[in-house]
Request: fold
Amino acid sequence: ECVVEGCGDHALEYMTGGTVLILGKTGRNVAAGMSGGVAYIYDADNTLYTRLNTELVKMEYIIDKADKEKIVSLLENHIKYTDSAKAKYILKNIENEIISRQLFRLNTVKC
Reply:
């Protein structure tokens, strides 16, 4: 499991397993070659779709209770180790962030 507050080009490239939560901006070509695992992305400015490589993944809104619980757990752990203001903000406003469609799950697409 991993939480990052932003990353450059090719984030999640060739990811085959595990869980990642990205809390900030990404570069281009996100998820190129991603064939497994789960990625959650906080997309405050709703522009992820312009940088996402959709060849093997699709963006989905967070609707499952288990996804929300996993995100909360990742945020709490990240706060514990980093005291991140961004993570605190998202955690405090988690319901609104989900309702306003700023948190996404990337799922792999079967070829």
